[in-house]
Design a protein that fits this description.
Distance between the termini: 57 Å
Largest sheet: 7 strands, mixed
CATH topology of the largest domain: Rossmann fold
Oligomer: single chain
Number of strands: 15
CATH architecture of the largest domain: 3-Layer(aba) Sandwich
Strand content: 15-25%
Number of helices: 12
CATH class of the largest domain: Alpha Beta
CATH superfamily of the largest domain: Response regulator
Order of helices and strands: EHEHEHEHEEHEHEHEHEHEHHHEEEE
Number of domains: 2
């Protein structure tokens, strides 16, 4: 079978109605036993399936993670591949919606028979496909480096099929809330998305506070899919009534930016923290645009939790490789994406994370040499210890530890750049 020369395949949105989806699932269950458990490695190419939001309010996350992965793939392929194997990425758009993510995954396995799933974006979407991994257990199908810090991807029974590169939401909330406590903040409120992602972040905040004899003073939620145009003055009022001295938001960039806008307009001056999934680069774009309209500074007093260091840190070898790869990348937006969702060759936390994921994957493929199989990929990753990827923290997997990195980074935005937050040592949990 002939392959396109580009390491990218795009299938657009694979959206099924409930009836069609049920039919597809039944068909998948019937066909599963007929599939031999082997890799799709024709023409010395390995194809990986990525379902992510390339449309809708969360499309910035999917696009940026894809850009980082593709820059890494192109760099690897230009150097002869990973152990001689070209890395190819097949994309399907799920719009940050669990049902399309489910049907996309079935398509990857039953139609394309991809080597592994890679770079899924979001907790609600990824959580929905986890039972499929268990169903395809005999196929040894792996989900690699999803863009989510949810606990359920790090726990039984799915930890045998999922390899996480990034720190968890528990890791992020522990550091973020710890930093707030270190500066004397005790009345902490939470604004979160009303789903498994939002609840995971909420629970992380609750756990840290409970360890200090404290509790969340107030909370407000919003429905997944909110745009920046949404009015959050009611939610701001609910939290404001409890007089919090800090707020943690657990949401997407458009929703968190809209909440911050309305909070600052209402006179809330308390520091506001966000998790990595809020996409700090995109969130700041929303707020800077709002500043140009009102003249108000919306970025001061914000704390951004990240799971990778700044790609602007020239002392990091990985950042140097990333900047070079992004400058040379020929990555173009998949069909249907608007230009507003894509800024060529610009760095971001999300695309840097995607690039690092591509680097770890390439090393795993190299270690399989001339015998890449799904089963061997699982074994190689499970045995990976102390892999130096150039960020100052080494990647290690192993029994009971399917999370390669654990460090988090707290950032503030000042004078057009993300800078490390200075946290007092005394008072940290």
């Amino acid at each position: 079978m002939s392959r396109p020369s580009s390491p990218l395949k795009f299938f657009g949105a694979a959206r099924l109605g409930p009836a069609a989806l049920c039919l597809a699932l039944c068909l998948a269950l019937c066909l599963a036993l007929a599939l031999p458990a082997r890799a799709r490695a024709e023409g010395r190419e390995l194809v990986f399936g990525m379902s992510a939001a390339f449309s809708g309010p969360a499309r910035g996350l999917g696009m940026e993670y894809f850009r980082g992965l593709m820059a890494s793939f192109e760099q690897t392929n230009a150097q002869g591949g990973a152990g001689g194997w070209r890395l190819v990425l097949s994309l399907r758009d799920d719009g940050y919606d669990p049902l399309p993510a489910l049907s996309n995954t079935i398509g990857f396995v039953e139609q394309e028979r991809v080597f592994a799933l890679l770079g899924y974006v979001g907790t609600p979407t990824t959580a929905r496909v986890l039972p499929l991994l268990k169903h395809y257990e005999s196929e040894r199908l792996a989900l690699l480096f999803p863009f989510t810090g949810a606990n359920l991807l790090r726990e039984r029974p799915y930890d045998a099929f999922v390899f996480n590169l990034r720190a968890s939401y528990n890791d992020e909330t522990r550091e973020l809330v710890g930093a707030l406590l270190a500066t004397g903040k005790r009345r902490i409120a939470v604004f979160h998305q009303a789903d498994v992602y939002g609840r995971n972040g909420w629970d992380g905040v609750r756990r840290v506070l409970r360890a200090h004899g404290l509790s969340i003073v107030s909370e407000a939620t919003y429905r997944r899919g909110a745009a920046y145009t949404q009015d959050f003055r009611r939610e701001v009022g609910l939290l404001q009534a409890a007089a919090p001295d800090a707020i943690v938001t657990v949401g997407t960039a458009p929703a968190c930016a809209a909440f911050i806008r309305d909070a600052r307009d209402a006179g809330v001056s308390a520091p506001i923290g966000t998790l990595s999934f809020a996409d700090a680069d995109n969130l700041v774009k929303f707020l800077l645009a709002q500043t140009r309209v009102t003249g108000r500074d919306y970025t001061s007093g914000l704390i951004f939790s990240q799971v990778v260091p700044s790609c602007e840190d020239a002392t990091l070898p990985a950042a140097q490789r990333y900047r070079q790869a992004m400058a040379q990348a020929r990555v173009v937006p998949p069909a249907g994406l608007t230009s507003e969702a894509y800024t060529p060759n610009k760095g971001s936390f999300v695309s840097f994370e995607g690039f690092l994921a591509g680097q770890v994957l390439a090393e795993a493929v190299r270690r399989m040499a001339d015998a890449p199989t799904r089963a061997r990929l699982l074994a190689v990753l499970a045995g990976m210890q102390d892999l130096d990827i150039g960020i100052g923290e080494k990647v290690s997997f192993g029994p009971g530890g399917n999370q390669g990195l654990r460090q988090t980074y707290l950032m503030v935005y000042r004078q057009g750049a993300f800078l490390p937050l200075a946290v007092p040592a005394r008072g940290r949990p």
